[in-house]
Amino acid sequence: MAVPVPRDVQEFLDGYPAVSDDPSATANLEFYSNHARCRPDNRTIDEIHEQWFGDYDKLEYKHGFIQWLFPIREYGMNYESQPLQTHEIASMRADPKIMERILDSYRLMLDFYGMQLVAPDTGLLARVGPPRQFASRYRNLVRSSHNNLRISRILKCLSEMGLEHLNAGFLLHVLNEQSEFGELYSRGLVSSMERWWANCIRNDQEREWIRNIIDRVRHSEGDYVFTRQQYETALESRANTGELGLPEGL
């Protein structure tokens, strides 16, 4: 039985048809150009990247920054931030420095979640640091459910910014951790992954492939295990053929 797609995710998939662009709104572009400070934290994007990386308490208990680091065309809980505008998307995607800053924001949050970006071109992730470090971060992700909403925002933002290939790397890493190692497995994370995260991909083939592999892990009578080898192979297949996939028998 298919899991219903939440309304906010369906609006994202449809490209926000009811949302109009405001040419006068430029807060996200100015922030990512390092010309303006976010509110209420009063930091530039470069200051956040330099000063907050590894500051897990700050990243856990502050809540206003996530709307600035990962703007989307929806209102969040921080009303001092601004929804992303379509004209901002075009300008940000055309600026290599801004695109590198977006990747740095992703790396910042991955580290907070106990992960690291191994290959930006494929989206391949790995655990971060020694076992004690990633285990502590994984426990926090399981325990702190507000991060589930943050991840939905991150995935939507990456898609808007032309970095949607990273989403599969994240989703399949989490699935591998759950399936092969029993990590990151809780009712909240499973629900968020199946209802929200796995749908935050506009590429129809990629979204359906990921949903099918999740369904196979969850409901296979043969106790199907999605391994690290399969994770890496699926991303390699996309790099070589343009589509996620696994060879017969793997």
From TrEMBL:
GO terms for cellular component: membrane. Residues 23-227 form the Opioid growth factor receptor (OGFr) conserved domain. One of its GO terms (molecular function) is opioid growth factor receptor activity. InterPro entries: OGF_rcpt, OGFr. Pfam families: OGFr_N. Belongs to the opioid growth factor receptor family. This is Opioid growth factor receptor (OGFr) conserved domain-containing protein. It comes from Panaeolus cyanescens.
